[in-house]
């Protein structure tokens, strides 16, 4: 009977908190959106599923051994942990948590050894997170794969569209200002590093957002990734009203001249040019843009198609599976159910809206100073969200003028947006570090 | 707050400056490549031989092949 | 000349023990069975090859740096190791080994540092084992791939067959009882954790057996994995006599009604239902069944076929290669050549036989209480061993009645058996931990 | 020995109870799905167009294709 | 304004050294050779790109956290590092570097903890290097893939060609002698371990060279890998003059008898025979030749084509990407721009030339003692560089006699050369270790 | 210098000895396999049925298929 009681005590139904239950419902909602509504399913299916796993009570799948020992260890273990972390003795869970968070590396290792000796081990999802995200490798490998899938032809045919990709990053920076403002007004409590990580949602680029928040605000990573991918899926709903409001019927009808042919050698040299500029001026963007350029060079150089194929298929797929589950591990109730999450969701959509508007307005500005007119509808594609945003531009173009195929023209700002947000990420990391964030 | 303003102003400035540099370098690079390494001739189509005759039949064949590939991949080997 | 002497001293022919030689012969035998007799070759080829590598004398491929230092280090190294492990000084190899096994994490790390300073490094297979199995990741990833290959249609069309999958797990528990009994009688010396790990052989499911024994009885992992895969390959020999003995000709002729059509949505929702039940009642089964359900959801949801393809191909193949070599590392003579191995082999086949019988008898019981008769031959498929056991059911059905195609009907209990043994694994882990095993 | 008996009895009990729960939930789920989310119509066959005419020819074609794929994969690129 | 100044101070254009600039030009040159001249592009594209990344000033992509802390940390961090490494206090960068290089494992870990506490983390390329090369796994996995791509049929049909593969390894050993001689004469400063690692370039086998130098001379790995792959690409230029000089027109015209049919079972058993010989006599070659034989067994046994396919495609491609980037990390200016690199490049080409000559001469020797004549042109293929060297033999054979197809005959010594250099690698590792290198 | 000579002499010696052993073992193995496990008959061609009729057509078909596969793989799924 004792055994049965043990099983019941260790079962989830007995231990589940309201928070965990709510998060399971939220994750089932994410799965529904991904599967039924086709919301970025490649990421949201693993994220949603990982979120359910992370909230299974008693399984501790998302916890390191030390935290598992804190929650499930007996008095002796707690006393040893406290001692390892430099406390006089175990006082309260709260003080132990604080001590663990602020522990120097040597103390943290002593605590890990105590947990190991007491028979605790890292949860599966925690291991995935550590290997895939904390090391930074998964977002970088995905970015390499994205590079290997990206055709810079339309951008090279019309380099001016890079300005659209630059302008759309205003969403990022405006959001940082917003987040800092909310903190100044006392509504939220975002540090400058948090604000920077939240802003990157406006870059509309999943791997960049995950990479930046893993560096600057790991605790907010779950909410930031979910916001980024959800809003990317919502691009066809968010962007059109803004685009219509900021353009006249006349402007939306503008037909653009056909793009010139771009030679193979230009395409080969371009990633190297970009890499060298990054090397010269933005070393903190080197991991992201370096891997991106590497993927693109493998694609275009034509002599390593084996590697390019693998980067676009097996490797990016494997990485996506583990990245998704790892992001899901950050949907554990005690971290996700926080007023900050609401703030992040609110700021994220503002970021998208401002980015879209800035892209469109920039296109109109370009038209004032240049004789080759661009259709301002392609400005919104500067937020990235490849290729969804470009398709939205195309759709609105066709509505205004049935012979106006903007897709190829919009791909230029669209891939420029990827570069733009990676550049913004590098700037942000540099500045936040300089501020001691 | 000051920090937020700093990040916004300098950040936006640097993004624009960087992309401006990229526009300039790209344009120069394109000119150089087009002038000094002109392409032999943009090949009209990747597979001219098979393109002429029966594109419809080919399309159907391709579809069958793709399905075969898909089945081949999905089979529980 | 000194060099030549060194080379000869370090050569395998000089150092090889009889045990290592015997294990090489055993591993060549495994390779022969795998290649010539088609015994689960996907696993037994890497396992057998890994076993040969693990037994190369002097190469220390399966040893951690510390053990390599123990076997090949000079007196100074041995003294330092003894000190690091808290001994007064080096007394005997045996006492050093015991000290290493019982060392707390901090002492083990000091010993590892001594070994590193003396120039020793971990063997290749030891590294593979650590990354693939000790972390738990390889069996889980394979289980995800198996989930992505599994069609739950036949099970959903006839959910009663889950009882057959449950009954067949009796083999697992009866074997635990047998192992504990052998220990009680003094024939063997199995702890309760050992007994639980051995029992899982009866689950006829490789990744589950490896996962459980990596947690409960890592020392027995080699023997357990070899037994599990060998007996799975022997299913067409082990099961038929039992099935014939327990059924009448009349029963074997029973034709079953055609399975109803199962909708896509049912198939999508099923893995989520299973996951939620696991979350509520069996958190210790969450890693195994969670990954399994995740694989199956990727397969059925239809929106992430890229990921599902990769989980079924590149990812599972890569993992299988390293899992197999890692299991092979546990075939080193000093661990495998132990009376326990014979006990494990004997108990394993008993487990299979009892599981088969329990499945068949459960099917007969179901026939007593229900009007839709099931052919008791499909009961044996409940041990899992997908799809071999289902094919055996089909073959015996055709023998009795040439129009009786049982394959699809047997797939229900067959996949139920996979769920059943993962559930049994979760129960076992929970109970053994509660007993302080 | 007591521990072994405990594990066997409780273990088997829990496995049965769990799978019983699963049978119940699955059955309920199937009823709910069939009633509230009925499928448009179980599509007769995945590729009706190609199925009718020449299955033998298709089989041969598929074989050729599969071999081509195999060779394609095995070639020492 | 302070921010702007910070950004400029942290930018690459400000910090770049002449060395880094030169290395970037060198790496662009490697990319040019790889892409335009088709110089082993599968390796040289990732290596060249990784080299550029490693030389981005301020990004520290190729540095461990400790070294990043040394270069970018403030006085406090330097003092703590000095203390952790057992120095009285911070004196000079040079003494700190020396202390770090010679630090025992425990001190190195304390230093790493200081760096972590100061907020430094390992660079991306450093992590890749650690996981892929320092662990030894990447060259071994590539060797497994090469094994799975290798057909031993021509070798089995004519086992004598193994002697050609043996003779061509003379290039390796002559180079060791050369390197030691240069040191004895005071021209260079190569240790015996360095000399052994440099010699392996003459094996004309990339993974073997990388594996050996990761063990014996990690600092020279970049130069050795670049030399090995570059000279392999130059085989069609290096070998023909030597081959012509050492053979008469008459000899080059020799037609060889058609190779006998080799049965499937012979092909299956051969890797096992090789493995057992390695196990008996050369345990230090076991990792390399073990993985090679494993790949070949998977290929030939016919029952695990799933695994063999993956080893030849997804797995080898993924590994190649990370191996290449990791090798690139060793092209950082401060390590690569060293007089030693010039010595390595010079010795490497001599090694190739001597190996080629030895193979040709051995073939002529074989002709003296045997009645089945071999065309001496196939001797040069013994250096490996599969399949380039065999093609060179074929080409020169056709020049002398338009009906003389030597390709298949040359594949025998070609794959024998792979075995030969792996054997030489094992011998070298054993002997250098015995010498305390 | 002595060490270098040692490595060269012993090294070359061991490489030759090892490969000599391998030659011997391989030759013995081949004899044994050929005598005791003779192959049924070296199958003339892997696919005799399809080889006879229209190799040219097959070659063209294979080419098309390979290209289809290539496109299939390269498509930005
Ligand atoms: Na963007
Ligand atoms: Na089972
Ligand atoms: Na070689």
Please tell me about this protein's structure:
The complex is a heterohexamer, with three copies of chain A (437 residues) and three copies of chain B (77 residues). Chain A contains 26 helices and no strands. By secondary structure, chain A is mostly helical. In chain A, α3 packs antiparallel against α4, α9 crosses α22 (314-329) and α10 crosses α22 (314-329). The N and C termini of chain A lie far apart (54 Å). By secondary structure, chain B is mostly helical. Chains in contact: A-B, A-C, A-D, A-E, A-F, B-C, B-D, B-E, B-F, C-D, C-E, C-F, D-E, D-F, E-F. The interface between B and D is small, with 7 and 8 residues. One sodium ion binds at residues 203-205, 383-384, 417-418, 420-421 of chain C.
Pick out its properties.
heterohexamer; A: 437 residues; mainly alpha; 26 helices; B: 77 residues; disordered C terminus; binds sodium ion
* Order of secondary-structure elements of chain B: HHH
Shape of chain A: elongated
Shape of chain B: rod-shaped
Number of strands of chain A: 0
Which structural class best describes the helix and strand composition of chain B?
mainly alpha
Instruction: Give the oligomer, counting copies of the same chain as homo and different chains as hetero.
Output: heterohexamer
Provide the low-confidence segments of chain A as ranges: none
Which percent bin holds the helix content of chain A?
A: over 70%
Sketch the topology of chain A as an H/E string, one letter per element: HHHHHHHHHHHHHHHHHHHHHHHHHH
Structure annotation, total helices of chain B: 3
The total strand number of chain B stands at 0
Estimated share of beta-strand residues of chain A: under 5%
Greatest interface (CB-CB under 8 A), with counts per chain: A-C, 42 and 42 residues
Mean pLDDT of chain B: 67
Q: What composes the largest sheet of chain A? A: none
Q: Using only CA atoms, what is the Rg of chain A?
A: 24 Å
Bound small molecules, by name, code or SMILES, are: sodium ion
End-to-end C-alpha gap of chain A? 54 Å
The residue fraction in helices of chain B comes out at over 70%
The percent range for strand residues of chain B is: under 5%
Tally the helices of chain A.
26
